[in-house]
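--- STAGE predict ---
source: upstream dedup step, 1 unique chain passed
mode: sequence only
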Amino acid sequence: MTPQEELAALRHLIEKQQKEIAEKDAVIEKQNDQIEKQGAQLEKQRIQIENMIQVLLQARKKMFGASTEATKQVEG
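--- STAGE serialize ---
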């Protein structure tokens, strides 16, 4: 194999590897976008759950009144 042929083969290999890297980068970018969307959705659901808990606590307080239990003081 002549030096020119070797150089052409190496250039072809480099181009092939660059194409593979670009394809993998595109897949990674797509997955990162999906992760971001899911993270935003989870945060929205977390806020909704927190709001539901607050509404439930307010409803419980309205139905049953404030707690009359006192916490015992522990002397130590």
